[in-house]
Amino acid sequence: MKKLFGWVTGLDRGYLTLLVVAAAAAFLYVQWSKMAAERDDYRRFGELVCSAAGAELEAGTFKVKGPDGKVRTAKAARGQLCAQRIRALATYELETKSQSAEILAGALQAHNRKTEADAASARRSAEAARAAAAKMENANAAIGDDDRVGADWFNALNDVAGLRPPPGR
Amino acid sequence: MTLPGCARHLADSGPPEVHAVKVEDRAPAELTRCPVPPAGFPEDQNAWAVVPPAVRAAAIGLAAAYAEARAQLERLIQWETGETCPPGEPAR
User: Fold this and answer.
1) Which residue, A34, A42, A77, A96, has most beta carbons within 10 Å?
2) A66 assigned to some structural domain
C-alpha cells in the first residue's frame, strides 16, 4: 500500500485533499444551481397560473364572514388565495356543466311533451273538421232547386265554423 | 416575474355564483289570449234564406277557414302556454 501511494507524499497529499474537496464543492454547487433554476421556474409557473385564475400567489389577506355576521380580514399564506380561487373555478365549471345539462334535458322533455300535446290537439280538430264537413255536404245536398236553406243547413254551417247559435232564440 | 397589479383581482369578489340560467322567452299575454268566437247563425224556425250554390260555397269556405285558423291559433297558444283554450262560448 505504501508502495502504491508512496509517490503521494507531504505536499502532494495536501493538494489531493484540496482537489477532492473542490470537486465535491463544485458538484454541490452545480446541484444547487439546478435546484434554484427549477425553483424559479416553478415559481414563475405558479405566478402565471394564479394571475390567469385571477388571484395572487403571494401571501395576502382575504375577507371572511364570521358566525356573528361581521366581515373580518384574515391572513392567507402564500398560495392559499390562489388555490382557493382555482378550487372555486373548478367547482364553478363542474356545477355550470351539470346545471346546463339538467336544463337542456328539461327543455328536451318539455319539447317532447308539447309535441305530443299538440299532435293530440291537431288530431282532435282535424276529426271535428272532417265530421263537420261530411255533415255540411249532406245538408247542402238536401237543398232543393229553390235554393232555400233552413235550420239544418245553418246548423251544419255553424258546425263547420265551430260556432254555436245565439242563445235564447 | 408578473406584475401583481396586472393580475385580475377576482379572488376578492368571492367565488362566482351564477351558473346556468334557463331563459324563457314567453309571448306577451295579449298574444296568447284565447280567441272568443262570435255567435253563430240562428238555428230555429225563423232561420231561413234563399242562397244560390255559389254563395253557399263561399259561406262554407269562410266558415271552414275560420275554424281552421282558430284551431291553429289555439294550438299555438297551447304550445306557448301549455294550457288548452276552453271550448268557445259565443259572445253575447
Assistant:
1) A96
2) no
Picking from A147, A148, A152 by the largest number of B CB atoms within 10 A of its own CB, the best residue to mutate is A147
Name chain A contacts of B32, Cβ cutoff 8 Å.
none
Residue-wise pLDDT tens digits, A134-169: 999 999 999 999 999 999 999 999 999 999 888 864
- Does A157 reach chain B within 8 Å, measured CB to CB? yes
- Residue A40 located in a structural domain: yes
**Could you give the 3-state DSSP secondary structure of residue A148?**
strand
DSSP string, A27-38: HHHHHHHHHHHH
Could you list the residue range(s) of the whole structural domain that residue A13 is in? 1-53
The question of ipTM being above 0.90 is answered as no
Instruction: Flag whether A11 is in a domain.
Output: yes
CA dihedral angle for residue B72, residue B74, residue B77, residue B79, rounded to 10 degrees: -70
**Count of domains for chain A:** 1
Determine whether the interchain pair A85/B37 forms a contact, defined as Cβ–Cβ distance below 8 Å: no
* Distance between CA atoms of residues A37 and A133, nearest Å: 91
In 3D, which of A81, A77, A74 has the Cα closest to residue A50?
A81
Lookup result for grid cell 296568447:
B32
Distance between CA atoms of residues B89 and B39, nearest Å: 8
In a domain, A146, yes or no: no
C-alpha cell belonging to residue B5: 397589479
- β-strand partners of A60: A76
DSSP letters for B29-78: TTTTPPP-PPP----STT--EE--HHHHHHHHHHHHHHHHHHHHHHHHHH
